Amino acid sequence: MDHSAGQQDFAECSRDDFRMAMRKLIGGVALICTHSDNRPYGMTATAVCSVSADPPTLLVCLNRKGSTCSAVSESGAFSVNLLGPENVELASTFASAPADLQDRFSVGEWTMLKTGAPILQNSSASFDCEVVEELDSGSHRIFIGQVRAVSRSQDDKALGYFAGGFVIPAQLLQAPA
């Protein structure tokens, strides 16, 4: 059997090679937020994953150099706010580095559920999590959070990130069973 047809070039994995290859993976866009030292912190992220439904648990991966990472460690809580297409501007705002982090929260309507972490009221869904475990890996810290409260909208539209830009998934190819 000839395995050369359609075979890809494999090389050592540099940081840039890794980043360019990961651009091929579509990810949902979320705002990871917390409240520490009497101020809100937040950032745009795609590194969010469900861990367990029993108990409801999520994980998020945050760059250890970012202020949101240390604020989540200090507060012991975070929210995951899943964004829809109407939140592109907000996603861009939270992805940039403003002079004052609180400026990020001047856009949108915010509330709190159980942990005190900021919850975006018009998100597709929001998860209010209590940190139950932290693990450092490379440049990032993985936070595992038990979901203490959830809110969700009736809207099923999602915002994704692919190939360095925001995308709106347009078609569900197969309905869930």
Automatic annotation (TrEMBL):
Keywords: Oxidoreductase, Plasmid. InterPro entries: Flavin_Rdtase-like_dom, NADH-dep_flavin_reductase, Split_barrel_FMN-bd. Gene3D superfamilies: Electron Transport, Fmn-binding Protein, Chain A. It holds the Pfam family Flavin_Reduct. Transmembrane segments: none annotated. Residues 22-168 form the Flavin reductase like domain. The keyword Cytoplasm does not apply. Belongs to the non-flavoprotein flavin reductase family. This is Flavin reductase family protein. The lineage of its organism: Bacteria, Pseudomonadati, Pseudomonadota, Alphaproteobacteria, Hyphomicrobiales.
